[in-house]
Amino acid sequence: MSVELRTLRHDDVGELAALHNRAFADYPLPAQLDASQIAFYMDETDVRADLSHLALVDGEFASFCLGAVRGGVASIRGEGTDPRFRRRGLGAEVLRATVEAVRGAGAGPVGLEVIDSNLAALSLYEQFGFVRRRRLSAFSLPPPKSGARLRRRPRLEPLDTDEAVGRLESWGWPDAPWQLQPGSLRHVAAEGMGDEVVVLGRRRERRFWLYAIAVDPALRRRGLATRALAALDADSIGVPALVPEDWAEGNAFLRSVEARPEALGQWEMLLAE
């Protein structure tokens, strides 16, 4: 058996997508992506090919690890191994090579997120020196109200995403996990309710995936965020497993709108300098 460890190349994206799908086919949250979706994800999360690594077994893509750097902080944005090649140390090898690469690019701390029920991955990361920093939760919101109240809901209008992210930052958006940081949210569609509320998320048919919602601090506690949710015109609203447990205000808002925590969450982990 011949094993080759090398950095990712831009023309590897098709083979990477196929490897990703094999690696995540038995995952607690299966994810199947095509080449364009993998490329978009890498772009929005600042993955760099020259910092990411592949392990090839006899020329076949067997394991991968994606590395990203922003402002002196790095993140492992995905790692997986084809089930046929597991328990051979390949995951540890691509992880080690990627951590060394992002550190060589000037990063200090290195973070990642991992599904909390993925015990094999948790064990690998903890053996490597990553520690659990905080839990990230997912939520489902009840269906929007119907009837007369729905007819009186305010309107949300499309909003330039850079403008929306700028408001988020000026209104306070502290210590966000990687996919909720401004650098990632600039790839997410935005809507606004006047100058008062911004909403960022993705629509999947009649379901809306809510990534961020914020209200001008001078206008908070007036029900504006709740009204904005009602204005989304979605049959259901989900919040990805990205909400930090230490975001007290955000979690309090979600409880106020009767959001239901999902069983599946993530651990945000950190490898210190």
Oligomeric state, counting identical vs distinct chains: single chain
Regions with pLDDT < 50 over 5+ consecutive residues? Answer: none
- Could you report the average pLDDT, rounded to the nearest whole number? 93
Number of domains: 2
Instruction: Tell me about the largest β-sheet.
Output: 13 strands, mixed
DSSP E strands, number:
13
Radius of gyration: 20 Å
- What is the helix content? 25-40%
- By CATH, the architecture of the largest domain is named 3-Layer(aba) Sandwich
CATH topology of the largest domain: Aminopeptidase
Q: In CATH, what is the class of the largest domain?
A: Alpha Beta
The number of helical segments is: 9
CATH homologous group name of the largest domain: Gcn5-related N-acetyltransferase (GNAT)
How would you describe this structure in keywords?
273 residues; alpha+beta; Aminopeptidase; 13-stranded mixed sheet; 13 strands; 30% helix; elongated
Summarize the structure.
The protein is of the alpha+beta class and 273 residues long. Helices cover 30% and strands 33% of the residues. The protein contains nine helices and 13 strands.
What does this structure look like?
Strands 1, 2, 3, 4, 5, 6, 7, 8, 9, 10, 11, 12 and 13 form a 13-stranded mixed β-sheet that branches. The protein contains 9 helices and 13 strands. The chain is an alpha+beta fold. The protein starts with a strand and ends with a strand. The mean pLDDT is 93. Helix 8 links the parallel strand 10 (207-215) and strand 11 (236-244). It folds into 2 domains: 3-108, Gcn5-related N-acetyltransferase (GNAT) (Aminopeptidase); 138-265, Gcn5-related N-acetyltransferase (GNAT) (Aminopeptidase). The longest helix is centred in the middle third of the chain and has 15 residues, at 90-104. Helix 1 (13-23) packs across helix 2. It has helices at residues 13-23, 35-44, 90-104, 119-128, 148-151, 161-171, 182-185, 224-230, 248-256, and strands at 3-7, 53-57, 60-70, 73-81, 110-115, 131-141, 157-159, 189-193, 197-204, 207-215, 236-244, 260-261, 266-271.
